[in-house]
Design brief:
By secondary structure, the protein is mainly α. It has ten helices and two strands; from the N terminus they run H-H-H-H-H-E-H-H-E-H-H-H. The longest helix is centred in the N-terminal third of the chain and has 29 residues.
Length: 240
C-alpha cells in the first residue's frame, strides 16, 4: 500500500483536502489555485513513478481516482459555489448549489468510466477532470485577484457545459508520448508550444483559454478524422 507511487497520489489528495479548507473557510481562491496545480503535478508524477519503479497495483489505480475525485471534482465545485456567492444577479434558491455540485457528480462518472475503459490510452473520451478543474480554479484565481467579474448565469452555464464535456463521447488527444519524434506528435508539440507562448504572454489569465483551445482542437481533429459520434451511434451509452 505504501509504495512510492501511492505516497505521491496521497500528496495529490492532501492538496485537494487543503484546497477545500482554503476555499470554504478562508475564501482564498489564489491558494486554492496553487494547491490544485500542485495536485496536478502529483497526479502526473505518480504515473511516472509507477512506470520507473514498476510498482503497478490495483490499489494504486483506485487510489488515483479517489484522489482525483477530491482534487479535480469536489474542489472545482466548491470554487464554483464560492464564485456564485461573489457574483451578482439571478437566480436564487437551492438550484445553484445543486448545479455547481454537478462538476463533482460528473467528475465521478468520468473517473468511473476511465477506470474500465481500455481505449483511453493515446486519447481521452471526454474532457479529463484535471483540465476541467484547472479551468475553474484559474477562473477563481482571476476573480480573487480582481481581474474577472462574472454573472451568476454565466457561472451556471459554464458549469453545465463543462459537466457535459467530461462525459461526452468526444475523443480528445492526450499529452502522452509513445515516442518523442515529430511524426505522429505534431498536434501535441504544436499545442504545447502555443500554450507555452500564451502562458508567457498572459500568465495565469491564459489558462481558461488554453483549456477551451484544447477542447476546440480536439473537436476539429475528431471532425476531420470522422470520429464524432452521432446521437444514434451512442444510443443509451451516455453518459457512462
Amino acid at each position: 500500500m505504501f509504495t512510492l507511487p501511492n505516497i505521491i497520489t496521497l500528496c495529490n489528495l492532501l492538496c485537494g483536502c487543503t484546497a477545500l479548507y482554503f476555499c470554504l473557510w478562508r475564501d482564498d481562491l489564489t491558494t486554492v489555485f496553487w494547491l490544485v496545480v500542485a495536485a496536478a503535478v502529483f497526479d502526473f508524477s505518480d504515473g511516472l513513478a509507477a512506470r520507473l519503479t514498476g510498482q503497478y497495483s490495483e490499489v494504486g489505480k483506485q487510489l488515483d481516482s479517489l484522489a482525483d475525485m477530491v482534487s479535480f471534482g469536489v474542489v472545482p465545485s466548491a470554487v464554483l459555489f464560492r464564485l456564485y456567492g461573489m457574483s451578482d444577479g439571478w437566480p436564487e434558491g437551492i438550484l445553484p448549489g445543486i448545479v455547481t455540485a454537478s462538476v463533482a457528480l460528473f467528475s465521478a462518472l468520468r473517473l468511473a468510466r476511465f477506470n474500465i475503459d481500455e481505449t483511453q490510452t493515446g486519447e481521452f473520451r471526454g474532457l479529463p477532470t484535471p483540465a476541467c478543474a484547472l479551468f475553474f480554479v484559474s477562473v477563481g484565481w482571476l476573480a480573487d485577484n480582481g481581474m474577472l467579474e462574472s454573472s451568476r448565469i454565466a457561472i451556471l452555464t459554464a458549469t453545465v457545459v463543462f459537466s457535459y464535456l467530461m462525459v461526452c463521447p468526444l475523443r480528445m488527444f492526450a499529452l502522452k508520448f509513445s515516442s518523442y519524434s515529430w511524426g505522429g506528435n505534431e498536434v501535441r508539440y504544436s499545442f504545447i508550444a502555443l500554450s507555452a507562448a500564451a502562458f508567457a504572454l498572459w500568465n495565469i489569465a491564459s489558462i481558461p483559454f488554453i483549456i477551451i483551445g484544447y477542447v476546440l482542437v480536439s473537436l476539429v481533429i475528431s471532425i476531420a478524422c470522422g470520429k464524432v459520434p452521432s446521437a444514434a451511434s451512442t444510443g443509451n451509452q451516455m453518459p457512462i
